[in-house]
């Protein structure tokens, strides 16, 4: 990552080598104009509305929606192009969900102006009807590319992908969920069909990069970061396998495994291009942040990563 950044920034001064040729006007050698995209992300917040109680535990005082909201507001006041995303498991974990069924979680995310989320397995914990009941409180998109809701009450409520415009950039976002069978009672997800995440990732990443002409493609994944290979030899689909077996994905924002990542894991895809994988732990303890710089004309990109801690 540092090497790519050096190459990217070095290109701004490379024109000096050919100034003496006299074939181009001096303005051609000005430093490139950069567009900065700031991506903020959470995952597995699990209904943690308030900070952890001050009970002597190692997490006491951490997390909480108020702290997250203040930090998001501060970053938005400092940055022009901000995208706020979540990778699922919004629900379940505190009495707030048991009493209110997800209403408070969706209302708070709407107040924080989230742009989109994908669905985690715990977002089915009140059943499809319970999830559907809370949709009026969600002023953000629910995105899932490999859950087929066509035969359920959610059939027209979840998008397979969405594009966003930020500072002249076109950002494509799609989402992937984990296999529900064996993880979630069938009565809760009903006729939801699970589709192969790698096949759907290739389908929608290609659509976003080639057909939609997106400058940057983000996958919101609730597959989990990485798993040990089982004795059967068939690995469970993870973000690492996803990155290595797809093309056109620039960034995977993950969830499910509650992995705290101070910096992204960088993998090579089918085309031998870099894919960044990141995840922000759980319970809203950490707000993930990635700053991505684009050269306006050539749309070359360089990723600078920084994890923002809500509280320690």
Extract low-pLDDT stretches: 5-29
**String of helices and strands:** HEHEHHEHEEEEHEHEHEEEEEE
What structural category arises from helix and sheet content? alpha/beta
- End-to-end separation: 27 Å
Let me know the largest β-sheet. Answer: 7 strands, mixed
Number of domains: 2
Under CATH, the topology of the largest domain can be stated as: Purple Acid Phosphatase, chain A, domain 2
Number of strands: 15
The total count of helices amounts to 8
Q: C-alpha Rg, in Å?
A: 21 Å
What's the overall average pLDDT, rounded? 88
Question: Can you tell me the CATH class of the largest domain?
Answer: Alpha Beta
Dominant shape: globular
CATH superfamily of the largest domain: Metallo-dependent phosphatases
CATH architecture of the largest domain: 4-Layer Sandwich
**In percent, how helical is the residue content?**
10-25%
- Residue share in β-strands: 15-25%
Structure description:
This protein is α/β, with parallel strands linked by helices. It has 2 domains: 1-31, no CATH class; 34-309, Purple Acid Phosphatase, chain A, domain 2 (4-Layer Sandwich). It is 23% helix and 23% strand. It contains 8 helices and 15 strands. The chain has helices spanning 2-10, 65-78, 95-100, 103-111, 127-134, 186-189, 197-211, 239-244; strands at 34-42, 82-86, 116-117, 141-142, 147-148, 161-166, 169-176, 193-194, 216-221, 251-253, 265-268, 274-278, 286-295, 301-305, 308-309. α2 links the parallel β1 and β2. The longest helix is centred in the middle third of the chain and has 15 residues, at 197-211. It starts with a helix and ends with a strand.
